[in-house]
Write a structure and sequence with these properties.
alpha+beta, two-stranded antiparallel sheet, elongated
Length: 100
């Protein structure tokens, strides 16, 4: 643990005092509070997106790990994009809303 310079908490739970105390007990140092936890998540997503775009330019292959779709009436699942599809990908499916 002595090799860790800083602990940065991200996400909404980072603002909970009890979480901050637990992290301080585990790492024996106070978490850095100079970073906005919600902005850190957004910046991380931005950086990941930039890496994906840059890798695509290098013909690198990124895959979607899980199928993407929506929940249907009765708790079913309408798959729109299959898992292991290469990013970027595009798919469409006509789905109607039920008449109640």
């Amino acid at each position: 643990m002595s090799r860790i310079d800083e602990v940065i908490l991200v996400g909404g739970m980072a603002r909970v005092c009890q979480i901050q105390h637990i992290v301080e007990e585990i790492f024996m140092k106070s978490p850095c509070m100079q970073v906005n936890p919600e902005e850190a998540v957004a910046i991380g997503a931005l950086l990941q997106g930039a890496l994906i775009i840059e890798d695509r330019r290098k013909l690198s292959c990124h895959l979607i790990p899980l199928s993407l779709g929506i929940e249907t009436l009765g708790g079913g699942f309408a798959r729109i994009i299959d898992r292991h599809s290469v990013i970027p990908c595009m798919a469409s499916r006509n789905i109607t809303t039920p008449l109640v």
